[in-house]
Amino acid sequence: xxxxxxxxxxxxxxxxxxxxxxxxxxxxxxxxxxxxxxxxxxxxxxxxxxxxxxxxxxxxxxxxxxxxxxxxxxxxxxxxxxxxxxxxxxxxxxxxxxxxxxxxxxxxxxxxxxxxxxxxxxxxxxxxxxxxxxxxxxxxxxxxxxxxxxxxxxxxxxxxxxxxxxxxxxxxxxxxxxxxxxxxxxxxxxxxxxxxxxxxxxxxxxxxxxxxxxxxxxx
Length: 219
Fold this sequence. Notes:
Mean pLDDT: 82
Low-confidence stretches: none
Distance between the termini: 12 Å
Strand content: under 5%
Order of helices and strands: HHHHHHHH
Largest sheet: none
Helix content: over 70%
Structural class: mainly alpha
Number of strands: 0
């Protein structure tokens, strides 16, 4: 049992990781990279099935225990929305059983454009207010660095809106300079650090040093 729980997954991860690295640096193995991409898509499909099962099971448990769990109505809405979207996606090439006659793109696209996109825009609108609230609490000139950050943030925000150009014609120029020079320098440093961290984590997984992705080992 330990072989299937620990040894085999580690061996598969090591072989797949090494092959992925070799196909990137050896041009002769380019065909294998194409085939491995197809295998990865198949694995991703089964992983998505497991994820859908886990999601529906979790929400179904909340619905069946409605009296003991708060917010079970949201779980019910999630299940109903999933079933309706699945039916529209599988029935009549995405047109759906109740799609309007003049809808050329299909009911699935209508659900995406009219419901998903609208809900996403609403969530991002709420997120903008949360960001403004967090910025108000964070950007306080308690030190020299905080004061510089506060002034730079105000310049960038004013330079991105028409009122900034109305105040001064140099605000948009200053805002663009802050985004292109200091911001880009910090961004590159962060990206380099993230890339090095990703490489280190990948090597730890390939060589079996990092095993947290296997889950807790049962004694």
